[in-house]
Design brief:
2 copies of one chain form a homodimer. The first copy, chain A, is of the alpha/beta class and 220 residues long. The first copy, chain A, contains 6 helices and 5 strands. Chain A has a single domain, classed as HUPs (Rossmann fold, 3-Layer(aba) Sandwich). The model of chain A has no long low-confidence stretch (mean pLDDT 86).
């Protein structure tokens, strides 16, 4: 069994990779260099892929900067200590997961993988519309209509974290032996690579470790 | 009203651009440099976008060669004078329209366009699964779940040619004043840029002009 797993270098996708490895999949880890300001995550993705025994790690370069309109890719400051107001934050990259899943689908089809893993979760998350289960299910339906039928069955988009909160994700990672010290979450690290601790990603990460009662090796 | 239109340089997408211009849309033409061997289509796309009054023409460079597995992007010969056997030909690029639509969606969301035009057709076509109406409808559903809701209504993926045969497409283009002499279709042109007349794309094009009773300015 082979799978393509989207691995960002963050904690969630590391848990998904560990989960699919635990289920016996030979995994191709796929990351994207999309002009993100937090490019340290690509080095983290390589560490995670290696530590968790991915068969290979591919970095697809894509240029979403021409699309602009996000604090992660354009010259817009990353918000700090943002209040939860239910709005979609400026760090949202338009249709990012659609683009990432489209590439994962192309790779899966070319390599005859029928499983794609993605670490979205819709409980403790930043409010991005493309992190919800109904989007993933709709993309899976489109993926199966838009690719060649296979004797190995339909394409499955596996999002094992989609209904977990951040504390559950940390606990599941610990169970699976994920070394969270290899991962990175910060959207806006300092020149020394240290997490800012104030962006949405840092705050969600801290919330998860606190809820799990586990020390975060990255900041402790 | 603004639209993003996928413009390949071929005849079908030229008709779609003309159709949306006729309906009053200000159109951003979007093309892809994806390592295709028939790169002459990018020059054709620029000619078509200009002639039909697109507001702008963007060329997104993407690298699908790492995915391989198609005669359009890998080192595999383009088949000539292929018999129609109902199989998906080797010129199929895995998930290509999914990737193209994902980028169009990102651009549409960033620019607050709610309409995306694509020139797929499922009547006289090469058997690619991502050219069918049910795929387009499923992608549209995913696109609306995966992007920010807008006060301007849902994203529409417009595929006005999906139920036309090639002859109808030629006639519609003539009605709309499309100069087909600006377009190119061949998958495997000679060093002089001339169409080979034997690949699937050349044969479908010839069939369309013959059915419409119109001379093709490119080969006549």
């Amino acid at each position: 069994m082979r799978a393509v797993v989207l691995v960002s270098g963050g904690m969630d996708s590391a848990v998904v990779l560990a989960h699919l490895r635990h289920e016996g999949f030979a995994c191709t880890a796929l990351s994207f260099d999309y002009g993100q300001r937090h490019r340290q995550e690509l080095a983290a993705a390589a560490r995670v892929a290696k530590a968790l025994g991915a068969v290979e790690h591919l970095v697809q370069t894509i240029d979403m900067r021409c699309i602009g309109a996000s604090a992660l890719t354009a010259d817009i400051p990353v918000p700090k200590d943002r209040s939860e107001d239910g709005t979609i934050p400026i760090t949202y990259v338009p249709a990012r997961n659609t683009v990432f899943l489209a590439y994962a689908l192309a790779l899966a089809e070319a390599r005859e993988c029928r499983t794609i893993g993605i670490g979205v979760n819709a409980v403790d998350y930043s409010g991005y519309p493309d992190c919800r289960g109904d989007f993933i299910a709709a993309f899976e339906a489109a993926a199966n209509l838009g690719t060649k039928p296979s004797p190995h069955g339909p394409i499955r988009i596996v999002a094992p974290l989609v209904s977990m909160d951040k504390g559950q994700i940390v606990r599941r990672g610990v169970e699976l032996g994920v070394d969270f010290g290899l991962t990175t979450s910060c959207y806006d690290p300092g020149a020394d690579g240290r997490a800012c601790r104030h962006c949405d990603a840092c705050r969600l990460r801290a919330l998860g470790f606190a809820a799990a009662g586990v020390a975060d090796p990255v900041v402790s």
